[in-house]
Amino acid sequence: MKKVKILMGSDSDWSVMQEAEKILREFQIPVDAEIASAHRSPERVLKICQNLENEGYGVVICGAGMAAHLAGVVAAHTDLPVIGVPLDGSSLQGLDALLATVQMPPGIPVATMAVGKAGARNAGVLAAKIFSVGDEDLRNRLKQFRKDLALEVEQKNKKLFQP
Amino acid sequence: MKKVKILMGSDSDWSVMQEAEKILREFQIPVDAEIASAHRSPERVLKICQNLENEGYGVVICGAGMAAHLAGVVAAHTDLPVIGVPLDGSSLQGLDALLATVQMPPGIPVATMAVGKAGARNAGVLAAKIFSVGDEDLRNRLKQFRKDLALEVEQKNKKLFQP
Amino acid sequence: MKKVKILMGSDSDWSVMQEAEKILREFQIPVDAEIASAHRSPERVLKICQNLENEGYGVVICGAGMAAHLAGVVAAHTDLPVIGVPLDGSSLQGLDALLATVQMPPGIPVATMAVGKAGARNAGVLAAKIFSVGDEDLRNRLKQFRKDLALEVEQKNKKLFQP
Amino acid sequence: MKKVKILMGSDSDWSVMQEAEKILREFQIPVDAEIASAHRSPERVLKICQNLENEGYGVVICGAGMAAHLAGVVAAHTDLPVIGVPLDGSSLQGLDALLATVQMPPGIPVATMAVGKAGARNAGVLAAKIFSVGDEDLRNRLKQFRKDLALEVEQKNKKLFQP
Amino acid sequence: MKKVKILMGSDSDWSVMQEAEKILREFQIPVDAEIASAHRSPERVLKICQNLENEGYGVVICGAGMAAHLAGVVAAHTDLPVIGVPLDGSSLQGLDALLATVQMPPGIPVATMAVGKAGARNAGVLAAKIFSVGDEDLRNRLKQFRKDLALEVEQKNKKLFQP
Amino acid sequence: MKKVKILMGSDSDWSVMQEAEKILREFQIPVDAEIASAHRSPERVLKICQNLENEGYGVVICGAGMAAHLAGVVAAHTDLPVIGVPLDGSSLQGLDALLATVQMPPGIPVATMAVGKAGARNAGVLAAKIFSVGDEDLRNRLKQFRKDLALEVEQKNKKLFQP
Amino acid sequence: MKKVKILMGSDSDWSVMQEAEKILREFQIPVDAEIASAHRSPERVLKICQNLENEGYGVVICGAGMAAHLAGVVAAHTDLPVIGVPLDGSSLQGLDALLATVQMPPGIPVATMAVGKAGARNAGVLAAKIFSVGDEDLRNRLKQFRKDLALEVEQKNKKLFQP
Amino acid sequence: MKKVKILMGSDSDWSVMQEAEKILREFQIPVDAEIASAHRSPERVLKICQNLENEGYGVVICGAGMAAHLAGVVAAHTDLPVIGVPLDGSSLQGLDALLATVQMPPGIPVATMAVGKAGARNAGVLAAKIFSVGDEDLRNRLKQFRKDLALEVEQKNKKLFQP
């Protein structure tokens, strides 16, 4: 099975991006994370991009705040699917990161998630969905995951309204 | 090879969403499109979702404007990766569709593209990238596609500045 | 008298949506609440929608945050009036939920309230107003309610400026 | 059957607000329209409000642009349900009218629709839904209307993709 | 000398609007404040408006949050200059109140100030400026006030950078 | 009677700012206009400011687009009431000019109007209201003006709905 | 004298970015332009960046629309001052490009200009100002340029108001 | 070597603007700071501007919040490069200051940085970059600074992921 690489611009992003790692581990998808800033360590980003395919990665997840270029830069240097997680890292509350991540020009897509923790978790789920296109076993785990989400809603409902 | 399904909320969205179909045909990926509104024909959307896997689809692309729920509803009813294209269909110029598409809650991701034509074209490219995770031949065509993008930039540069 | 159903996407929304329940109880309108997520438990939402009319509900109030599809999905599956309360559930402070709730396409309206607690309370008042179209007694209670609002303003004024 | 009153701030709003009138006539609901500006003819607005109940109106639809106060002012002076349609009447493209209509304080709700024509049409549909709470025949017409919406989607799909 | 009337929608606005009262007292301009909600106590607002001129008021300052209609409603019912202070009273952080206050239609102006405390204080200063058009003594106090502002900047500079 | 000075940043603003001049002439208030850019001709702005009081001006109206500093700069250099009209002069559609005009710091107010023509016209009306504080005759003309606005609404209503 | 390099993401940007070239030629500063997309031709961008200093460039001007990463990427790969011009290239009207250009993280500044033509022209002026820090002759031309701006305002004023 | 002048509108801005001073001191560039408000002490701003060149300043950094005119006013009165730092000083979270700083009209550029501390620090870096155009030694220090940024990223990565 291919691996997922999580990249983030700063160590302070890890508390949010860890949501992606957690859910990938739940799906038993191999994953590792690195800090690499598109602006402060661009060579490092390029080097990581050049080795992604050879090292067995199948999807890249990039989390960044402010003028969040990380996902776009990675998407410009790899043919793997790139998932972008805009982070709330300025007084503009993630609107800057969202627009800088999602508004990619024709030819170089970034699969953009919601701002913050919800987006980080969904980046992991989307990576699993992408791998499941050719992996029936993973697809079945995703089916179970979706059933569990529905079950969890029912249980919360019972707890709150039928005590 | 699995197929791509393009869904859109209204026939007037086709002139934009056709960008996705065009690029998928260039990549020789089987694709077909349907109109299905999450609000006006919800049963139709459900029925399409229920048959996607059986009928050999691997990715769904959803284009919608305003309170663009189509991608979210499809993502709630299938385990396939869902790509959302927010369309500029109101005086708010696609900001409504962008936020309604991208801000998905934890568990149900929508891979959101840029608003409008650029996003529709990139939805097709992302679908190809997703299929290429398990398809080396397609990966090579994507590599060529990215080289061609770079070449095209150089050619435009020559035409404009070195006549 | 018909009943009001309050739906919300998550148990964490209850502290806000309870404002709707409280005011409905003040108006002696039968009301109950359930958790049902348009994205994580879509079948549950459909099932609730299918039974609303038979079980004697006359109005549905839906509270959701982020890409708030709950009200739109319910409006797509019932002919009852649907009231939407956008909740402040992300760094974008409810603007996402507001646009995702209010910008409905032609044919499927959602009666949208203000973001958050004010909106939840007003959802209850609007439900009462809707029932009062055919219920003179309730109309009279609404008249009294509006008089009490005015009185409350006068009392606060006295307390603050004429001690 | 009770009547619907459509109010709008300016004669130039009629081309948009007429969408509400059209759909109400389709539902055979009696409706008439008047121009009344909350800012330029406030006494006229008050007078209309005072007579609404006596003259047999059951719902008021208010369309206004810019700092759209009309719906809020009407809601402050009547106990009928008030539906607000924000209009795109300035360079800010209806965002001003949307916020000025929807962000009502606790106690005085305005059922807010989408900006512009879609919102005007939906105001008519919502008024019909409100009347249908106590009118089974109208409820049935609404059921048919919703079926027709779904049918129309299917027909457009056939026309575009199965010629 | 004419008086200034400060109106606000809720008693919770007083902590902000008091800034207007303070600066007016510094300028020795007679001022009093009242709570009057455009939505919850509209008759009270009308009654206050009808008496403003007779009771010797020359300017009205209105502070309100959310869909802030108070200033607009007052401007519709009096010929006195009306100053509007948008308040930060919702998750949208005063953008709603700003647009609802400033985007008045032709014929009925509201002199809009900044959101919150800065705006409340400036409402007092603007009222003084308005009265000073026909009052040379007040004009001189305003000149001194502006000189003091400049002096204060110099003193803060000295304190911080030349200790 | 004191005069009104209209300033604008560019000759292209005149088509909008002329609305202020027109309404002032209707009120028989002396008015003249000048082009003076806060950024391109700052000395010219200062010079105009220094002479305003001596030359008999009582109010200044400033129209500017983009980072609209003109009104703020004039307010910093005069004790006269300053009215700001934000103009729609960039792709951001006047939101830039609105925020740059209205968000003034404590001590230096700018009476901000709506973006564009409505705001320009209202700047003229507000100037008249300001002068009317000490001019009963002008107050009466304003009363008539407001009555005419209401009459005009009624006439438009008759023309449209009672032909 | 050092040269200025103008980079832009697409040939369609040239009509706007030419404003920068024009003003630089007026200041007799050597300048040339190239098309280089941060996303579609990233190697080309890197190569240009690596040669900038050797080839005698002193400032880089980058114009791009949507998720405008060009200036940020260039700033990450050179020590020259980088000026960014956000372009209006999507339905979001340049707000996306503005935030993606200006919100740079600590350490890697981009000197951001206004959206569109005004910004492109100002990029040229800023480049001239930067070169003038060590070039008194150029400083004098800038002084004259600023005087001419003021003169132009006066002439436009005469033409419009003193015919 | 020329000096850098840091100006800010209020003493409360110093905690943010100090970031600019710190980084300039790291680069051994002479720098001093002053408080000067474009609105409350305009003469002071003018006087500072008039002496900048004579006193050996080469760049001005201006930090201001709300309707942040300081950078624009300084740019209008000097030929030195002006760097603007928008500050988060109101409920609108710096969007007001950003637009008021960056949207300058043609002819008078302000090199705009990100909102808040990141922007203040980058203002210092940009000033260093500007001085380095004619100062190879400083250029070398900037090269080292950029290398250190990259190194710091690697070290943080090691600390977090390879303990």
Topology:
The structure is a homooctamer of 163-residue chains.
Chain A: E1 3-8, H1 14-26, E2 31-35, H2 42-52, E3 57-65, H3 70-77, E4 82-87, H4 95-102, E5 111-112, H5 117-132, H6 136-161
Parallel strand pairs in A: 1-2, 1-3, 3-4, 4-5
Describe the structure.
- The structure is a homooctamer of 163-residue chains.
- With 163 residues, chain A is an alpha/beta fold.
- The first copy, chain A, has helices spanning 14-26, 42-52, 70-77, 95-102, 117-132, 136-161, and strands at 3-8, 31-35, 57-65, 82-87, 111-112.
- Chain A has a five-stranded parallel β-sheet, sandwiched between helices.
- In chain A, strand 1 (3-8), helix 1 (14-26) and strand 2 form a beta-alpha-beta unit.
- The mean pLDDT of chain A is 97.
- At the A-B interface, strand 5, helix 5 and helix 6 of A face strand 5, helix 5 and helix 6 of B.
Strand order of the largest sheet of chain A: 2-1-3-4-5
Q: Please, how many helices of chain A?
A: 6
- Largest interface summary: A-B, 41 and 41 residues
* Oligomeric status: homooctamer
Shape of chain A: globular
- Low-confidence segments of chain A, given as residue ranges, are none
Determine the strand fraction of chain A and express it as a percent band: 15-25%
- Supply Rg of chain A: 16 Å
Biggest sheet architecture of chain A: 5 strands, parallel
Order of helices and strands of chain A: EHEHEHEHEHH
Total number of beta strands of chain A: 5
